Structures are given as structure tokens and as C-alpha cells.
Recover the amino acids of this structure.
């Protein structure tokens, strides 16, 4: 007699776990609502080209993708940002700022591990429109308030900057600027592959060994925002200037978050560079 069990990497949600999930929702949704974020539900299934547009064709090795009965290439979503951004891009009539959130499942074809499954739930809040630092601070501050609502007290915020990483790449070697997107996609795999494999992938893209080493050194930069001066002094020339410039934006962000969350001790261990 066959065993009727979930596929590998999947799990059933029993009554005990469901009660905990519902309790979490009951705690965090009022926080989002208070700050005027509205709940949405992006499509579970996306066109494959929509997902590869963000992460490149290599993401096909990490997601569930298939052809439907009409031969269309489709895939199960692997995060919420892509779907929410697509919804906003297709709705130009909504006045800004557009403040949305979702609490939903997604799927990734990763190797199952203890406590890590191929179908999992996340919550995500996004704000579209404003370019001021306060908009980002509002997203981060609301997230911190949501964790406070769950009774979590030991919370720190780690901030990253895509623009900073682009500046670092360009300052290491101006010829790399045109390849920034592909380089960032490779660096994004750092948590999943070893450093030697990462180096091999970068060299395969035409990067010399010295540039590879310097680039990987840049991705490891981290520290407290108050220690920016020491971190920046590690670099010379345009790279140092870029670090100082974006360091000032991080400091402004921290101040805005502190103001938003009313004296909550944030950013005690903020990362200065983090590939996202």
C-alpha cells in the first residue's frame, strides 16, 4: 500500500502550528494597519520571464517552474517583492505613496534542512513613491514595531544599499560597471555556495584574480554605523568617498527610524554592506 505523504520538502500544518500562525497574524496585522499599509495577495503563479527578469535564468535551478497545458512557461513565486512590484507597475492610477503588505506562502527548490522547507510563509511590507529617507525608515520602523508586538525585545536592524554596492564595483574597476547586474546576481549566491565556487563564477565572467579578491573583500565589509570612519579608512580614493557618502545616508536612516519607533535602540549592529 503506498504511503500518502507530502512531497519532499513539503509539510502539513497541524492545528497547533496553525493556532500559532493565526496568533502571529493577529498581533502584526494591526501594526501594519495602524501605519496605513493595506494587505494584498500577489498571484501564487507568475510568468517565468517575470521571475527571471529579477534574478536571471540561473534562478530556474532554485524554483518550481513548469509549462501549463497551453505551453506557457510559468513558475511558483519565490518571494513577495516581485509580485507586489508587478501589481504596482500595472496600476498607475493609485495615488502615491502606495503602502502594501502581504503574509503569504512561497516556494523555493532548495535542499530541505531541519526547520527549512520548500514551501514557507513570509510577511513583507513595501512602500512605493516617495524618495525621502523617511519612507524607508517607515518600512523598517513598522517592521520593528511588528516584532515588538510579538514580544521580541532583542531586535537589531541590519541595513544594506544596492547603490553602495554598485559604487564599490565601479570604483574597484570602472570596466565592471556594465556588468553590475550579473556580478550582483553571482554575489547573491554567497550564502549558498563556497567562496572558491564564487571566485570561479566571477572569473568565468572575465574578471581577473586580483579584482575578484578585492570585490569579495568589499562584500565582507560590516560594522556599527557609529564606526563608519574606521571602516571607510580601509579603502582609498573613489571607494572611500562612496562609503562616506552612503554612510551619511545610513546615519540619516538610523535617525529617522529612531524617531519613528520612539527611542527604541535600533541599529546596534547594522551591516554597512550586505548583498540583497
Amino acid at each position: 500500500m503506498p504511503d500518502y505523504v507530502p512531497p519532499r520538502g513539503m509539510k502539513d500544518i497541524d492545528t497547533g502550528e496553525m493556532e500559532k500562525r493565526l496568533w502571529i497574524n493577529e498581533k502584526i496585522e494591526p501594526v501594519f494597519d495602524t501605519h496605513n499599509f493595506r494587505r494584498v495577495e500577489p498571484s501564487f503563479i507568475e510568468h517565468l520571464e517575470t521571475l527571471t527578469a529579477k534574478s536571471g535564468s540561473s534562478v530556474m535551478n532554485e524554483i518550481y517552474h513548469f509549462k501549463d497545458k497551453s505551453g506557457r512557461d510559468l513558475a511558483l513565486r519565490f518571494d513577495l517583492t516581485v509580485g507586489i512590484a508587478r501589481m504596482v507597475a500595472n496600476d498607475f492610477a493609485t495615488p502615491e505613496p502606495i503602502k502594501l503588505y502581504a503574509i503569504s506562502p512561497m516556494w523555493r527548490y532548495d535542499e530541505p534542512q531541519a526547520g527549512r522547507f520548500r514551501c514557507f510563509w513570509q510577511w513583507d511590507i513595501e512602500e512605493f513613491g516617495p524618495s525621502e529617507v523617511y519612507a524607508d525608515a517607515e518600512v523598517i520602523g513598522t517592521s520593528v514595531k511588528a516584532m515588538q508586538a510579538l514580544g521580541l525585545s532583542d531586535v537589531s536592524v541590519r541595513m544594506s544599499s544596492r547603490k553602495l554596492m554598485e559604487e564599490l564595483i565601479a570604483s574597484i574597476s570602472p570596466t565592471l560597471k556594465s556588468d553590475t547586474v550579473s556580478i550582483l546576481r553571482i554575489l547573491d549566491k554567497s550564502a549558498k555556495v563556497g567562496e572558491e565556487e564564487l571566485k570561479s563564477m566571477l572569473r568565468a565572467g572575465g574578471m581577473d584574480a586580483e579584482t575578484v579578491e578585492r570585490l569579495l573583500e568589499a562584500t565582507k565589509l560590516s560594522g556599527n554605523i557609529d564606526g563608519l570612519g574606521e571602516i571607510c579608512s580601509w579603502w582609498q580614493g573613489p571607494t572611500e568617498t562612496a562609503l562616506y557618502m552612503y554612510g551619511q545616508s545610513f546615519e540619516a536612516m538610523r535617525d529617522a527610524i529612531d524617531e519613528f519607533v520612539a527611542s527604541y535602540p535600533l541599529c546596534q549592529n547594522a551591516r554597512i554592506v550586505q548583498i540583497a
